[in-house]
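User: For documentation purposes, I need each entry recorded in a consistent format: the amino acid sequence on its own, followed directly by the corresponding structure tokens. There are two entries in this batch. Please keep commentary to a minimum and don't merge the entries.

Assistant: Recorded as requested. Entry 1:
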Amino acid sequence: MNSSNLQGSVPPELGMLNNARIMYLWNNHLRGQIPSSLSNCTNLLQSDVNENQFTGRIPAELCSKNTLLTGFYLARNQLSGSIPASLFNCTNLQRISLGANQIKGTVSMKFGKFTQIHVLSLGRTQLVNSSSRTSLQ
């Protein structure tokens, strides 16, 4: 459903698709908060909501139940807050894209838990390196 000119908010009922493997909603006009009910999609391998107009924090529950996730794309939205600790439960992640958001905080050594990581995009955020306190922009 990418580039489909979808508008409005994501209904929480989308979280009832617990057998879904791929969720591509990128490049639409979706807005509001990302529903925490998406954490119920425990078989999801890829989640891409890049290039929308999502606001608020990344739901803390998003990776609390799903350890299968290999691709997590949230770039180019209007997300704020910090990276939720539950993200580090998804140890199979190979691609993480959080750039071009208003995410704040430090990037810790916990990113070392992602032993299969190929892409880590954190640019154009307000994140800083925890050891040197330098911006990652």
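Entry 2:
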Amino acid sequence: MSATTGTGGAPPPTTTTPTPKRPMKLIFVASAFRAPTPWQVAENVRHAERLALEVWKLGGVAVCPQSMSALFDKEGPDERYLEGWLTLLEKCDAVLVGRSSAGVDAEVLRASMRGIPVHWNINSLRHILPVSESEVGS
């Protein structure tokens, strides 16, 4: 018999069942990407990344196409990327809108057609994401 368990080496039975975690929500960041200059494109990407970080801080999973494909320019047809992002958007639980553009309009339209909630500011996501107000910013 084991001195640590008293049951011949088997661990003692547990009496509690772990509580399953609530699945994290996927939040699609819809914000402008294209711009007249590379500097402005980079600024658009940074804006989207700031929104994505706030989603993560609130307990969501940010899907941020602007940063995921920022360096893909001219590596393939734009239509492939645009349709790919719309396909991914359809898997998300909500859309967060940042800077407006024609692409963002298309994303908002697709979300609306699929019944995916569209949020126009980060504060409106607080009621669907798990982090409490006291945890934000920690």
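Summary note for entry 2:
Helices lie at 38-57, 65-68, 78-89, 102-113.
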